[in-house]
Amino acid sequence: MTEDLTEIDGVGPAIAEALEEAGFETVDDVLTASVDELAAIHMLGESSAASILEDEDGGKGRPSKLEKYEDDIFEAARQGLTYEGIARVAGVGVSTLHDWREAHEDFSESLERARSEAERELIQDVDAEFVLERSYGYVKTEKREVDMDADIDQTTTQELGEDEKEIARQLIQMKQQQDSGDLNE
């Protein structure tokens, strides 16, 4: 079994595969090779080979541009956008956004807090009956008697009472706690 060569700074999955195909099975195999040996591998030139061996910047691949986009990302998250929408507003790919979430725990936690803020605001603005229907399968049934001889030209609208709204808020809160793992079962 070979080591994960992507642990080497400057080596991504494609280069790791090319290195393995060329017979480099371990990180040590790569780091003890010469620049010329690495440069001869498909997809690696002399400067890339030297960079891998010298570990010039101490980083893996290009430096992250997260700091440049962080404010835009959090602002979009506070607006309640999906990850795809957040990435689009920030001008980055959704896969880049997910990579940043995986690589930077603080960023990921802050992003989730921003999305939670938006979710809370959205839920407060949404009619409780809608939330009950969509999230919990609530169905309100009514029995009405209609005189078929009468002319009916009116629309009847019925709103949830305060008790039903409070039940909806409590159900939503329990669901959020359960989703975040705060609810003790």
Automatic annotation (TrEMBL):
<dbReference type="InterPro" id="IPR010995">
    <property type="entry name" value="DNA_repair_Rad51/TF_NusA_a-hlx"/>
</dbReference>
<dbReference type="GO" id="GO:0006281">
    <property type="term" value="P:DNA repair"/>
</dbReference>
<feature type="domain" description="Helix-hairpin-helix DNA-binding motif class 1">
    <location>
        <begin position="3"/>
        <end position="22"/>
    </location>
</feature>
<dbReference type="Pfam" id="PF14520">
    <property type="entry name" value="HHH_5"/>
</dbReference>
<dbReference type="GO" id="GO:0003677">
    <property type="term" value="F:DNA binding"/>
</dbReference>
<dbReference type="GO" id="GO:0000166">
    <property type="term" value="F:nucleotide binding"/>
</dbReference>
<dbReference type="InterPro" id="IPR003583">
    <property type="entry name" value="Hlx-hairpin-Hlx_DNA-bd_motif"/>
</dbReference>
<protein>
    <submittedName>
        <fullName>Helix-hairpin-helix domain-containing protein</fullName>
    </submittedName>
</protein>
<feature type="domain" description="Helix-hairpin-helix DNA-binding motif class 1">
    <location>
        <begin position="36"/>
        <end position="55"/>
    </location>
</feature>
